[in-house]
Amino acid sequence: MFQYYFFLGIRSLRRNPALTALMVLTLAVGVAASISTLTILHVMSGDPIPHKSSRLFTPVMDNGPLKGYTPNDKPNDTQLTYRDVMNHLPAQIGERRTAMYGILMAIEPARKDLPAIEPEGSAVTKDFFAMFDTPFLYGQGWTDNDDKKAADVVVLGKKLAEKLYGNTNPVGQYLTMIGHQFQIVGVLNTWEPSPRFYRNATFGTQEDFFIPLASAIRHEITHAGGMGCTGDTAPGWQGRLDSECTWLSFWFELKSEGQRQELQSYLDNYAAEQRKLGRFMRQTKNKLFNVMEWLDEAKVVGNDNRLSAWLAFGFLLLCLVNTVGLLLAKFSVRASEVGVRRALGASRKEIFNQFLIESSVIGLAGGVTGLLLAFGALALIAMQSKQLTVVAHMDWQMLAITFVMSVTAAILAGLFPTWRACQVTPAIQLKSQ
Questions:
Q1: Beta strands at 80-81 and 246-253: parallel, antiparallel or unpaired
Q2: Domain containing residue 412
Q3: Which of 132, 208, 220, 395 has the largest count of CB atoms under 10 Å?
Q4: CB 203 within 8 A of CB 390
Q5: Is residue 51 part of a domain?
Q6: pLDDT score at 100
Q7: Same structural domain, 212 and 325
C-alpha cells in the first residue's frame, strides 16, 4: 500500500499546482536557511584531526609581570616566547614536539612569465609534518640535521607548486626566496584542516610553503600575526628573541592521553625553574589544552554562531506553521473524497496513512528544492572571503540531514491536517453530494 499511496501523493501534487508550489517553496526556504547555518556550524565545530586530537596538546603559560596583575586573571597571550620554545623543543617529554609561526616571504619564480609573489607560509620544526599527518604529493619533510644546521630547504603547498612548476615534480630544484636559494625537499598534497587549529585556530586555506624555524630565525624573518609583549624590549632582532614577547605556537604529541599528567608536571616544574630566574612571577596555573579543548578556549564557535543557528531553526518552525495552514487548506477541499472512501470501507488508519504519505512526498520535494537553495546560499557565502570558503561547503552527513529534516518537517506539519481529514463523517459528506 505504501507504493500505491506514494504514487497517489505524486499525483495529488498536480491537482492544485499553485498551492503545491507554495507549500514546497515554504518548506524549502525554511530547510535551506537552517541547513546552510547548520552546515557552517557543523564544519566550524568539527574535530579537525579526530584520530589523535586527544593526544595533541598546546600549553598556555603566563610570563606577564606582577604589576597590574590580580589573581585568576587569564594570560595576556596564548602563544609562547622564543626563549620558552627553545627550552621545550629538546625536552624529552611526549613523542613529538613542534614550534611554529606564520611568515610572508617574497618569491622570485624561475619562470619569466610569472611576477614576484609574496605568499603566506609557516616556519616550523621537522616534527610538524609527522605530528599533524600532512600528506605528501612528492618528496618528504626535512631532517633533524636540517633543523640543527638551519638549512635553506622548503616544502611547498600543492597550489603554489602547481603555479610555479605545473604538474611536474619540483623536488630537488632551487627556489629563490627573499634573495636566497632554498632547495625544495617536498610538496604537500591538499591539506586543509578546518580550522587551522595548530596556528591560532583560524579558518583559511593551506599555507603555500613551510621552511625550518631555525632558518627563519637565521634570516631574521619577522612573523605575520599577533604578538604580545610585556616589559621593555631591547632593539633589533636579538632583542625580540631575548624578550618576553609571545609570538610562537607550540604543540606536544603524547603517546597516549594518559601522559597528560606527566606533561602537566613537566610544565609546572619548568615554570618553577624559570621563577627562580626571575620569570613567571604571577603564579598563574599552567594550562594544557588538547585540540578540541583548544578550539573551545579560542572560541572558534562563538555565541553569535550558535544564536544564528537557533534563529535559523526558528525560521524553519515559522515555515512549518505556514505549511500546516496550507495543508489544512489542501486537505479540506478533499473532504468529499474522504467521505466516499470511508463509506466504501476505508478505515481511519488507511486515510491517515494516505494523507501522511502525501505530506512526506511534499517534504521530499521541499527537501530537493531546499538542498538546491542551500547549495546556492553556501556558494554566495563562500564568495565573501577565503575564510568562509573553507567552512561553506556541504558533506555527505549534511546531505543526509537535509532530506531527513525536510521529510520529518513535512510529516510533523502534516500530522494535524491529516488528523482533521480523518475526522470526516461519511454520512454528512454523502448527504451533501
A1: antiparallel
A2: 2-45+302-432
A3: 208
A4: yes
A5: no
A6: 95
A7: no
Global pTM exceeds 0.90: no
DSSP character string of 257-323:
GGGHHHHHHHHHHHHHHHHHTT--TT-PPPEEEEHHHHHHHTTSS-HHHHHHHHHHHHHHHHHHHHH
Distance CA 45, CA 106 (A): 34
Q: Give the total number of structural domains in the chain.
A: 2
104 and 241 share one domain: yes
Q: How many CB atoms lie within 10 A of CB 409?
A: 25
Rounded Cα distance, 386 and 279, in Å: 40
pLDDT reported for residue 262: 94
Query: Of 232, 267, 297, which closes a domain?
Result: 297
Task: Evaluate whether 352 touches 422 at the Cβ level (below 8 Å).
Answer: yes
Co-location of 186 and 261 in the same domain: yes
Q: Which of 269, 297, 325 is the last residue of a domain?
A: 297
Nearest C-alpha neighbor of 100 from the set 14, 184, 191, 225: 225
Residues 282 and 213 in one domain: yes
Is 311 a domain residue?
yes
Tell me if residue 212 falls in helix, strand or coil: strand
- What one-letter code names the amino acid at 93? I
Q: What is the pLDDT at residue 302?
A: 56
**276-279 contacts at long range (C-beta below 8 A, 24 or more positions apart):** 279/63, 279/244
Whether 112 and 186 map to the same domain: the answer is yes
Q: Residue 267: its pLDDT value, please?
A: 94
Are 268 and 131 part of one and the same domain?
yes
Question: Is 8 inside any structural domain?
Answer: yes
User: What are the distances in angstroms from CA 423 to CA 87, 259, 353, 415, 416?
Assistant: 78, 66, 14, 13, 11
Length of the chain: 433
Question: Could you tell me the mean pLDDT of each successive run of 10 residues in the chain, 433 residues long?
Answer: 62 71 80 76 75 93 78 72 95 92 92 87 96 95 95 96 93 94 96 80 76 96 84 84 92 93 94 90 87 83 64 74 71 60 64 72 76 76 61 64 68 68 53 50
Contact, 172 vs 118, CB < 8 A?
no
**Same structural domain, 376 and 275:** no
CA distance linking residue 338 with residue 417, whole number of Å: 13
Identify whether 50 is part of a domain: no
